[in-house]
Amino acid sequence: MKYDLVIIGMGSAGMVAAEFAPKLGIKVACIERDRVGGDCLWTGCVPSKALLASAKAAHTMRHADTYGLTAVEPEIDTARVWARIHAIQQRLAHSDDDPQRFREWGVDVLHGEARLTSPTTVRVGDDEHEARYVLLATGSRPAVPPIEGLAAAGYLTSERIFELDRAPASLVMIGAGPISIELAQALTRLGVRVTVLQRGPGVLTREEPELAGRLLAKLRAEGVDLQVDVEIDRVSVGDGAAKTVHAGERSWSAAEVFVGAGRTPNVEGLGLEEVGVEFGRRGIEVDDRMRTSVKSVYAAGDVAGRHLFTHSAGFEAARAVRNMFLPGGSGGGFLVPWCTFTDPELAHAGLTEAEARAEHGDDAVRVWRQDLSHSDRARAESADDGEIRIVTAKGRVVGAHALSPAAGELIGELALAIDRKLKITELASIVHVYPTISLAIQQIAAEAAYASAEKLSWLVRSDA
Known about the structure:
It is built from 15 helices and 23 strands. The chain has helices at 12-20, 38-42, 45-62, 78-93, 99-104, 150-153, 178-189, 209-222, 272-275, 310-325, 353-360, 376-380, 407-419, 424-427, 439-454; strands at residues 2-8, 28-32, 108-111, 114-118, 121-124, 127-136, 140-142, 170-174, 193-197, 225-227, 234-237, 243-247, 250-254, 256-259, 263-265, 279-280, 283-284, 297-299, 338-340, 345-350, 365-371, 387-393, 396-404. It is globular.
């Protein structure tokens, strides 16, 4: 069969490409070896956010006195929580992520293992398909560190934990990245004893240190046992099938071990070396147009090793399709905000203060901030333990960070300001709804505008 575009992988990147490409009037095939929806639907964003929602409900019940109600200890059956997660996944799988939806747009959805046999041919089983272009969107999988006894003991990952019927009775987590931190808070709120072990001294090190510190203090106060500077030696299984993680003279035991030690790109079995597609430890090498070292082959999403987020995967896939088939070119760097969906959420766009000072110099950088203790909405919702920070260089917004309810929702406005190189004072002219958390953005910007106006006070007209 001949196609204009063959997409390998129907996760976050592949589905965006499969939705966009038919609108250009081209013939498209998608190849998926497992389930349509990829990591986001089955092992990542969707199940973890569903879990977080259940955990937040339980936490609110325990602390209902904060809202003038009687606090109660919730009766938690994690089997019901997991059943809800699976029901949400199935609802999406039979609607937005249904293969039939793509077929109705004219996309051929093929199942099987795909392999490049030339820069313009792809083999699936016994069939070979020709294509003007190929888009590799095979994603990534959890990385597993070479720890003695880990494989023999057995372990969970983000791919396996949501395949269970219920939560483990207790958990030791290896690695303290965003996935582990989100799950640790959620499971602790659902009554699971959780210990998180981090190899180095820092946790969430890409974030503003003070905001990350405030979040981690909250998690510890809720009962998450977070240990840093842990050099793990081995894992063993003891009496009663308890699993123990050893680090020198220290050890931690639980019903299960969870591995959250980063991601590995899915590059195996694609025939990349044979056709000359270059790749490394982080993934397939691409240029700003998402093109690989072979001009007919593009890559997007986790397998391209740039930003391991669902939202960036979709953006990259759309950019790749646009560059394949439309005149001109779309390239250059692009800003990718992100959010750790704890409670409160921790969102990030652009540079941290330290990064801004290193790039622009101390004299050019100023950090504007508002603690949520000054937000009427945050106080009304008993959620004022947080802060919004805006980092500027010569008055222009270069970074933004929010520890707040719905931080992931409000960071988009600040990402736009960074991308468009707006001055912080320009944000003061955008009227925000009261009372909202995002009103703090306008208030911070207004403070900057007032500071600028104060320098012009000598121009104020008199009534004489």
